[in-house]
Design goal:
Blueprint: E1 4-10, H1 16-33, E2 38-43, H2 46-56, H3 63-72, E3 77-82, H4 89-101, E4 107-110, H5 118-136, E5 144-150, H6 159-170, E6 176-180, H7 187-194, E7 201-206, H8 213-219, H9 227-233, E8 237-240, H10 249-264
Parallel strand pairs: 1-2, 1-3, 3-4, 5-6, 5-7, 7-8
């Protein structure tokens, strides 16, 4: 049994295809870069864990279950790698449970979420440019806009979406917007921000690790209250990119950079 383990902790998704393209792909990238380490998985959504168990017979540990398994297996050195976008509720749970088990190991480290320090915003925007913006604006930006849909939260970490929006504008990405499903800005806020431009086509993409339920239903669904329907009602042509951030090497590399930083510190 390996004595060194990287525990990759994700919110999770019940959508198999996006899970394979994102969470699985990221875990494989971690394993490829650190072949001397055992790589394990945990999810922070108990609802998704329950659904996968009942529907697919797929058993995935919650965070404390994963830690107890590590203790039982005699693991001595562990790095916890959350794949969350922000230091919100889910990350708080990861950090809290990590602290509860910390004295069971010789060494415990935890990596930072995608948007944590000031420099992370610049790195994320560079990744957005490489993974999405160069492709979308390759011909011209006239009449085009991109709206990234984050999850949003009641946690104060929701402010990261506003900082990301301001960073985008300050770096000259004037046709790139950030909105949320369950936080601020809501889509109506974002549409008001966009109202000074006459956009003929809007691209929608989830600003989430996976392109799961929120991307398929809240963003790209056909109900009247989805992002797609609201932009169509506003007179725009809409193209939905059902792609999780984790599908793109640019974002995988950011998580790997946070992992290497934790290993070195």
């Amino acid at each position: 049994m390996a004595k060194k383990t990287i525990l990759v902790v994700s919110f999770g998704t019940s959508f198999q295809e996006t899970r394979e393209k994102t969470i699985d792909a990221l875990e494989k990238a971690v394993a490829a870069k650190y072949p001397d380490w055992d790589v394990r998985r945990a999810f922070t959504s108990k609802m998704i864990i329950k659904k996968l168990k009942e529907r697919d017979g797929l058993f995935i540990d919650y965070i404390d279950e994963a830690f107890q398994r590590l203790v039982d297996d005699g693991v001595k050195e562990i790095i916890v790698m959350p794949t969350h976008v922000m230091n919100g509720i889910e990350f708080d749970d990861v950090a809290r449970i990590t602290g509860q088990f910390a004295d069971k190991f010789d060494s415990v480290k935890i990596t930072k979420p995608l948007l944590t320090a000031e420099e992370d915003y610049d790195a994320v925007i560079e990744a957005m440019n490489g993974a999405y913006l160069k492709r979308i604006f390759k011909d011209a930006s006239n009449g085009k806009a991109v709206v990234f849909m984050g999850h949003g939260t009641v946690h104060y970490a929701n402010a990261c979406y506003c900082e990301l929006q301001m960073k985008l504008f300050s770096l000259g990405y004037e046709h790139v917007y950030v909105t949320t499903v369950e936080g601020f800005p809501e889509v109506e806020d974002t549409m008001r921000l966009m109202s000074g431009h006459k956009y003929s086509k809007v691209y929608l993409a989830p600003f989430m690790l996976v392109a799961g339920d929120h991307a398929v239903n809240d963003m790209a669904g056909d109900d009247d209250d989805t992002l797609k329907s609201k932009f169509i009602a506003a007179g725009c042509e809409v193209e939905c990119l059902i792609e999780g951030l984790g599908e793109h090497k640019e974002f995988q590399d950011l998580f790997l950079k946070h992992l290497s930083d934790a290993m070195e510190n």
